[in-house]
Amino acid sequence: MKSVAGIYFDGRQAIAHRVVLSVEAGRLQLRGETVNRDELLSALTIPAPLGRSPRLILFADGARCEVADSVGFADLLPERAGGWLSILESHIVAAIIGVLLLLGLAIAGYRWGLPYAAGAVAERLPAEMLTEMDHQLFASLDQHWLQPSGVPESRRADIEAKAFGLAPHAEVRLMFRASRQLGANAFALPGGTVLVLDDLVDLTANDDEIVAVLAHEFGHVREKHALRQMLQATVVGLALAAYLGDVSSLLAAAPAVLLETGYSRDFERSADRYAADLLISHHQSPTLLADMLDKLDVYWRERYNLKLGDRMGEFGGYLSTHPGSAERIAFLRERR
Ligand SMILES: [Zn+2]
């Protein structure tokens, strides 16, 4: 039979009696030289353990028993072993698990739920609203970042004719501009306006090369990547703005979101697949786009004075808004 040693006080005299505690048939038995006591366990009060102090057993008549051996006590009365500390400990574990679950949920929500929601919203926004969005964004870009294009009217018309021959979407509009800050670049705005910058046109050897870049941008348009990107950034931004109580700075930042937040690699791969299929179906080679990515890589490295092997991702420009160039070039060269 399990037992544990304790000190018994009868509640009338301050005399300590050595006893041995055991349990049988729901009764606590105390045996000692001067003590012989049996009590129903249900009639006893056993306070929760406090740190390392001895466990107490209180009797209804004022007597008490102290047990210093908390392990032996827990062994004898396992159902009474848990005190506030162990309860708290199990609650802390539960709380930590809860926090981790919540964190996991938030990350999953950010990683998968938010893109899904943005995609669903992007599909449902009316075309007129998107056109208006492009209009306002373009006005803001024109004001801060863009200058009139120096590409001759006739060349622009040729590029437009070839691009629309490739992908005659009603939703696509080409806009030619120059930009000192944005350099060799092309952007798809949320409503389908594709902005083509002079430095990009200057990099191309022929119209087919620029059209290959546009095929990639058409992929972004078709799959509403810019809109989804902005919706995602706006949801996070709005949540942050609500928290910080400042919405105006967020709205002012909308064009920067478009220009400085790169697309995800998933979006890039997807736009490349779209471009490759489009080019192949028009008897053009996806290597045209790969060649342009090579040229853009050299251009942006020179612009930022980067050595070969330096990381590019943190810098602005086409390759940071359309990331993963090495991987993309390899894919496009294989698709030829
Ligand atoms: Zn892209």
UniProtKB/TrEMBL annotation:
A GO CC term attached to the entry: membrane
Membrane spanning stretches: 92-110
GO biological-process terms attached to the record: proteolysis involved in protein catabolic process
Domain Peptidase M48 per the UniProt entry, residue ranges: 176-335
Domain DUF7092 span(s) in chain numbering: 4-78
Cofactor note: Binds 1 zinc ion per subunit.
Cofactor(s) needed: Zn(2+)
CDD domains for this protein: M48C_Oma1_like (cd07332)
Coiled-coil region: none
InterPro entries: DUF7092 (IPR055518), Mito/Outer_Membr_Metalloprot (IPR051156), Peptidase_M48 (IPR001915)
Family under the similarity heading: Belongs to the peptidase M48 family.
Name the record gives this protein: Uncharacterized protein
